[in-house]
Amino acid sequence: MPAPSKATDAEILALIREGLGNHRIARELHCDASRVRRLRKAHGLPNAVQQPLPLEEKWRAYTRPVDGGHLEWTGPRAGSTGTPQMRHGKDRYSGAAVAFRIHHGRPPRGYVIADCGYPHCVAPEHVLDETGRWQKRLEVREARGLGPIPEQCPAGHDMSRYARLEPDGIAYCQECKRLDKRAARGECEPRSGRPASLEEAFRRHTEPVDGGHVRWTGPTPKGLPTFWFARRPHTAYRVAFRLEHGRDPDGLVKPGCDMPQCVAGPHLEDRPMRKRTDSLFTAIFGDVA
Ligand SMILES: [Zn+2]
Ligand SMILES: [Zn+2]
Ligand SMILES: [Zn+2]
């Protein structure tokens, strides 16, 4: 139970007459909102009318003109991407999407981003939606004489569905791009230039470093060096161990050296090897545990 409020009815009524809402009064006077509501009713006082700033006005308050006709966003941004974002009522809006509505008087199609080169610019004349981007880049493509967009990408995807254009008018396949991103995250096999053997696939993601260690440059889903070969994932530790010892490891394999995620064959240990190291340690230094 919250501590009983020391606010008097007179104090609460004074704030009601000032036009504050029930919850605001409850917060300021540390009392129950239901008590404010009851008092309001008992005295026949109307509910406070919330006057939220219109979306566009709120948006303007978050912007600042900068050189070159760009508009800088001074308001809140989304987590890791830094994308201008604002709340209005219960909804979230991207700063660029509101800019688009202001300029075009209609909701955007697809995501909105400025095409002017100024990072996260929200100038209404600089932002484009998917349709606008396509139109503008198609014009660039035509002006450069790059010819019609191919019907298929080199991997055979239907370009009438997957073609997208770079700002310089160069066409690319969105499906290939998506697959490449998945491969980079270690979720599937790389699309092109398939390695001939498991060893070759493993070596592609390795880099020797000082001290005989080998750094893993490939994907590490859940912190585990992993790569794809022949349609299934392999953990780099097990593969490196097998290449070094010519046998399958027994139990968990991990580096016994001091470099995290080292995949140097001679540095990897399976369970029996770790046991041996431990007993050797005990023999030399005694059982410290
Ligand atoms: Zn701009
Ligand atoms: Zn493709
Ligand atoms: Zn090592």
From TrEMBL:
Positions of region (Disordered): 70-89
Top-level taxon: Bacteria
UniProt-recorded name of the protein: Helix-turn-helix domain-containing protein
